């Protein structure tokens, strides 16, 4: 399995509604990108000060499946329209598990 993990910190002026709209839209991607094997997206539980505010964890059979997802036009459009306008910082890692 190949896992992709992305952490987000939102801009101070973004709203909780925008955060949830972004995550809800991202959660629709498995219905349009068959290479996705599992997909989770959510906000931090708020238990520890300084944590990143949101996360996406996506599983694929291999790196090629992740590349399809990374470059898929629906994914790219969501990044441009919903993610970039409200995300101040992003961290990501991909790894074999």
Q: CATH architecture, please?
A: 2-Layer Sandwich
Structural class: alpha+beta
Total strands? 4
Overall mean pLDDT stands at 98
**SS summary, helix count:** 3
Report the β-strand fraction as a percent range.
Answer: 35-45%
The geometry reads as globular
Which spans have pLDDT < 50 for at least 5 consecutive residues? none
Q: Supply the CATH class.
A: Alpha Beta
The number of domains is: 1
Distance between the termini: 5 Å
Spatial strand sequence of the major β-sheet: 2-3-1-4
The helix/strand order is: EHEEHHE
- Main β-sheet description: 4 strands, antiparallel
Outline the structure in words.
The chain is built from 3 helices and 4 strands; from the N terminus they run βαββααβ. The relative contact order is 0.33. With 97 residues, the protein is an alpha+beta fold. The radius of gyration is 13 Å and the shape is globular. The protein has a 4-stranded antiparallel β-sheet. The mean pLDDT is 98. It has helices spanning 16-26, 63-71, 73-83; strands at residues 2-10, 36-43, 54-60, 87-96. It starts with a strand and ends with a strand. The chain has a single domain (2-96), classed as 2-Layer Sandwich (Alpha-Beta Plaits), CATH 3.30.70.100.
SSE blueprint and pairings:
Blueprint: E1 2-10, H1 16-26, E2 36-43, E3 54-60, H2 63-71, H3 73-83, E4 87-96
Antiparallel strand pairs: 1-3, 1-4, 2-3
Helix pairs in contact: 1-3
Structure, briefly:
This protein is an alpha+beta fold and 97 residues long. Helix content is 32%, strand content 35%. It has a four-stranded antiparallel β-sheet.
């Amino acid at each position: 399995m190949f896992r992709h993990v992305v952490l987000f910190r939102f801009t101070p002026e973004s709203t909780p509604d925008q955060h949830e709209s972004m995550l809800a839209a991202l959660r629709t991607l498995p219905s349009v990108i068959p290479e996705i094997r599992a997909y989770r997206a959510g906000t931090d539980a708020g238990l520890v000060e300084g944590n990143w505010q949101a996360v996406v964890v996506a599983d694929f059979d291999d790196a090629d499946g992740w590349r399809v997802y990374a470059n898929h036009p629906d994914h790219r459009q969501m990044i441009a329209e919903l993610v970039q306008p409200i995300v101040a910082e992003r961290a990501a890692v991909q790894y074999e598990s």
